[in-house]
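Schema walk-through. Below, the input block comes first and the output block second. Nothing else is stored per chain. Lengths vary across the set, and this one has 220 residues.
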Amino acid sequence: MPDVIAPAPVPRTRSLSRLRTAAAHCQACDLYRDATQTVFGAGPRDAPLMLVGETPGDIEDREGRPFAGPAGRLLDRALAEAGLDRDAAYVSNAVKHFKFHREGKRRIHEKPDAGQIAACRPWLRAELAAVRPRVLVVLGATAAATILGRSFRVTKQHGQALEWADFAPASPLTTEDGPPLDDAVVVATVHPSAVLRSRDRSAAYAGFVDDLRAAAAVLS
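--- output ---
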C-alpha cells in the first residue's frame, strides 16, 4: 500500500469550481506522479442524478474529463436508452488519477488499491455534499465499496432502488461531520467497462440498461 503523502487539500465549500481547482494540486497519494492530470467530476451542481465509477482511464487522463473513452460512450448510449440525460447528470470517479502500467507504448489500467481510494475519498465526499443528487448510481464494485461499504455486493443488489440512509451509518464517506447525503436513493450496477469486456456483450448491455432504468424510474 502506498504511503499517504499529505492530506487531500479539500476546501470547505459547495463550489464545484473551487473544488476542481484545489483537486488539480492534490498529492494525497502517489498516483499524481505518473498521471497527466487530476480528472475531477463534471456536470451541473444541481444535477438530480450522480454517477460514480472507479478511476479515469487513458483517454480520460489525457483529456481531463470523466468517462470520455469507450466506456463513456457506452454509458452515454445506455443512459439515453434508459431515458436519462448525460448532460443533466454529474459524473465522477472514486479515484481522480489514472493508475496504469505500461506494455510497450500502451498504458494499461490498473485497479486502485485501498490506500489510494482512501486518499481520494474526501474529494468524492465533497462532490456528493456539493451536488446532493436525488439518485446516486454506483458503477462497479470499487465505487460501491467506497460509498456503501465493503460488504455491499453489486452482483446481488444491482438494479435495486436503495435508501442511502440505510447505508450511511456504515459508509466510509460518513465522518464526524455526518454523511454527505440526506435522503438520496442509490442504485448499483456494473461498470460500463465490464460490459465491454463481457463475453456476451448484448446480454450484459441489456442488464446494464435495465439497472439504469431503475434510476430513471425514481427520478420520474
